[in-house]
From TrEMBL:
Protein name per its UniProtKB record: DNA-binding LytR/AlgR family response regulator
Keyword check for S-adenosyl-L-methionine: no
Keyword Heme set for record: no
Taxonomy, superkingdom: Bacteria
Residues modified to 4-aspartylphosphate: D70
Lineage of the species this protein comes from: Bacteria, Pseudomonadati, Bacteroidota, Sphingobacteriia, Sphingobacteriales
GO cellular component annotations of the record: cytosol; protein-DNA complex
Keyword terms of this UniProt record: DNA-binding, Phosphoprotein
Originating organism: Sphingobacterium detergens
Length: 252
């Protein structure tokens, strides 16, 4: 399964359809949630259920990517359903705040409090997208990107580091192990990090992501890489203040 989503700050667009199922025993809440989902272009509601027993009976015959579940329901609660759907990303939607800890204990992707706004739902879908892409990256050694030369397959092992492009900040320049570069078109760092294997790459400042394999030495604010420039000098990278903690955790 390969899902690619593209986001802008003012709206949310999905290049390939992301499919969900909904569950809420209260019909007004279910209709409202379905209406919100339908306002996100490219997000498809495969089926909306108001009975958890019916969902558990039918879900295996449905083609979907994630679930949005209510929690307090008769017969089966949302946690019972989530355990059955453990292979799918789960987003909980509930009027109660006391279940948040339990929800994240079972690795729920998000926990939305009713009443839900469109922007809050968009945030949850973005988190789902990141989980799906992360799972895809873990199981695949490559991803497909839109580049200045067309659609391209890029193997993660080829990548040394990524920089914001000089001409257009929406684009990213990828520096490859063979010394060549490729320009990724209109992709954010957040989107790129969702595709790259988390254990192998990290953002180090506002303008760069690096592969951990190129790190040779590092100090409080400078990373010395194993790469060299045309003068045979080591290529240095700046370690931004707000990125230090996550960078150091990689080497803890």
């Amino acid at each position: 399964m390969s899902i690619t989503l593209t986001f802008r700050s003012d709206c949310m667009r999905i290049e390939k359809t992301l499919k969900c199922i909904l569950l809420d025993d209260e019909l007004p809440s279910l209709r409202f949630l379905k209406m919100l989902c339908e306002q996100i272009p490219g997000l498809e509601v495969v089926k909306a259920f108001n009975d958890p027993a019916v969902l558990l009976k039918e879900y295996k015959s449905l083609n979907f990517d994630f679930c949005i579940l209510d929690i307090e329901m008769p017969q089966f609660n949302g946690f019972d359903v989530a355990k059955e759907l453990e292979d799918y990303p789960i987003v909980f939607s509930t009027a109660y705040k006391q279940y948040a800890s339990d929800a994240f204990d079972i690795n729920a992707v998000d926990y939305m409090r009713k009443p839900i706004s469109l922007s809050r739902l968009q945030q949850a879908v973005l988190k789902v997208e990141q989980v799906i892409n992360s799972r895809s990256a873990e199981s695949s050694p490559f991803a497909q990107f839109n580049t200045n030369k067309g659609r391209a397959i890029l193997y993660f092992s080829q990548i040394n580091y990524v920089q914001i492009a000089e001409v257009d900040s929406r684009d990213k320049t990828v520096f490859l192990g063979d010394g060549s570069t490729i320009l990724l078109k209109n992709i954010s760092f957040d989107k790129l990090l969702a595709l790259l294997p988390e254990q192998d790459f990290i953002r180090i400042n506002k303008k760069e992501i690096i592969a951990l394999k190129i790190v040779k030495f590092f100090s409080a604010d400078v990373i010395t890489s194993s790469l060299v420039d045309e003068q045979d000098a080591a290529i240095l990278f700046s370690l931004g203040e707000s990125y230090k903690k996550s960078f150091l955790e990689k080497f803890a």
